[in-house]
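User: Can you fold this complex?
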Amino acid sequence: MTRIVEPEAGPRSKRAAILTAAVDCFGEAGYEATKWSTVAERVGIGQTALYHYFESKTHCLLTIMRLELERSHDRFVEATKDVEDPVEALRTAVRAAYDVSPHEVLQMRILQNHMDLLSGTRRSKREEAERVAARQLVQVVERDWTNLLVKGMSQGSFPLRDAQLLGSSVLGLIVSVWRWYRPSGPTPLSEISELIEGACVRMVAS
Amino acid sequence: MTRIVEPEAGPRSKRAAILTAAVDCFGEAGYEATKWSTVAERVGIGQTALYHYFESKTHCLLTIMRLELERSHDRFVEATKDVEDPVEALRTAVRAAYDVSPHEVLQMRILQNHMDLLSGTRRSKREEAERVAARQLVQVVERDWTNLLVKGMSQGSFPLRDAQLLGSSVLGLIVSVWRWYRPSGPTPLSEISELIEGACVRMVAS
DNA sequence: AACTGAATTGAACTTAACTCAGGTTGATCT
DNA sequence: AGATCAACCTGAGTTAAGTTCAATTCAGTT
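Assistant: Here's the predicted assembly.
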């Protein structure tokens, strides 16, 4: 469990700007469809300057994914920390999952579209470090949801079922939205949130 | 709605062999991680021979995705065609979705991992044709599930809800499995199938 | 045997990610 | 203020993988 230390930002570091630009590009055009040099342009630097901050295009992608996973986990913990009733906790967690900015929507999309990157090991050190960290965070987030279910089951609020499998399924249901949802689309996120919230409760509690 | 005509197989065509090899490679190592030339090797031809059958690596990928979508649709129709009761139809459809061979598991994985390809338009003719066909098939499959829900709702078997959104969600739940499921893993597909079947019924019918 | 179109190939081309050796900037210290 | 040094940046060149192309082989047909 080696933690990744965020490189402390020198005063003229463009790391944050690169991440922001990359999220916009990768999220809208897709990772493969966007040229690494385009990200550089958007930030206002030469393409080779990118390598001062990231070892590779993939390293940047993995970093975005890890950051998004950290965010998801933190948000889950923050939202559910003092909700006692399991059903309410579940509802709160679902609502929190959809309480996101447009930029975060892009990050979720990127994360979902490239989960498969977390399977195979990477060649370079820093890439592999990010990959492993992200992989672990996936498990952490899965455990967040599974624990919620376990608690509810042991309290008798939820019928007893395979909490592991059901947890993954609930999570899968929730994040599946990010594959098709577009802020510009016909369905507002609030409506989606409500429907999924109900669906999750029925899935788990009835 | 231009249908794609499957190129009729000349007696010594290697198209099928290429598709099989590509599914194995893309499914196990990942699309980007596998070199196009590796597929050629596995089939036993030079890399340039691939271009006699597919315009590009992406064209091959899109073809795999379209074929898998056609299969999913056909299987859904076949499985549910003479099941009257909506709840039974739903159960049957879910079971059919998980009644797949290991090779089909790979195809589903590939499909799910590259859905984002279907968003942006492609440069070349044949690629774009496959993309549009696949895109349409996604909608067809979504309609399959949505129609099932609509029927159940109008018959009073399911409570009235946004069938469109609920249909996408059910489908999203079902296919989310292919992102993590491995035949070699600890959980047998039968167990997954049963849990998801129950979850879908509760989601929709209660 | 000549013909035809499908199937195949080696060599060359293209593109985008990446490397490298060196140059610039600006925060900090004396 | 001037020196220093690490952070930051760049242009030129390399590499790897996908792709193109002109030429060739092969199998079946007339």
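The interface with chain A takes residues 29-30, 32-33, 109, 113, 115-117, 119-120, 161-162, 165-166, 168-169, 172-173, 175-177, 179-180, 187, 191-192, 195-196, 199, 202-203, 206 of chain B (CB under 8 Å). Residues 11-12, 35-37, 47-48, 51, 55-57 of chain B lie near DNA strand D (CB under 10 Å from a C1').
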